[in-house]
Amino acid sequence: LAGTAIGTPEYMAPEQWTGITSQQSDLYSLGIVLYEMVAGRKPYVGDTPAAILI
Predict the structure, then answer these.
(1) Can you tell me the distance from the alpha carbon of 10 to that of 46, in angstroms, rounded to the nearest whole number?
(2) Where are the alpha helices (DSSP H) in the chain?
(3) Domains of the chain, residue spans
(4) Which residues fall within 8 angstroms of residue 49, CB to CB, at 6 or more apart?
């Protein structure tokens, strides 16, 4: 699966789209979850994965 992005786009760190992952990617995803718990919505909304990335 090399070169394939796997995950839910709303929770993926930007660097995951380029195939580079690290522990910071997990922290980014956790931050998205915490934001969603507090605000009641996702911080980024889009119709397509590419729209979320931009």
Answers:
(1) 9
(2) 23-39, 49-53
(3) 9-53
(4) 9
Structure tokens at 9: 């786009």
Going by C-alpha positions, the residue among 4, 6, 12, 3 that lies closest to residue 44 is 12
- Non-local (6+) Cβ contacts of 46 within 8 A are 52, 53, 54
Give the pLDDT score at 36.
Answer: 96
Tokens for 40, please give them. Answer: 């009641």
Q: What is the pLDDT of residue 3?
A: 62
Question: pLDDT tens-digit profile of 2-50?
Answer: 666 677 888 888 888 787 888 998 999 999 999 999 999 998 888 887 7
